[in-house]
Amino acid sequence: MIVIGLILVPIFLICLYISLKFIWGAEGKTERGKQIINVSYVSSAPIFPIGWLLIESYHTYINTLTFDTYRDSIWVLILLTFIVQGLVIFILKNRQ
To answer: Which domain of life does the UniProt lineage start with (predicted)?
Structure first.
């Protein structure tokens, strides 16, 4: 899990910077910017609940997860949610 964290955390920080800079910047205040933000929310919002459902299903029906594994899995879901949001904003912002 440490290797996954070492890979995902830098990508998460970059994508978080992209998201916050766009959302709080002047570009995010325009009509096109608001559409990009909405698409990024729609794309990233289902990741956490669907992932949580899969983790809970695995825990209930296949194999019991330890608390550490469960906690790490939730952190990975949070990181993936923000990574997808940042990537969607980056891709749509640069598409013209």
So the answer is: Bacteria
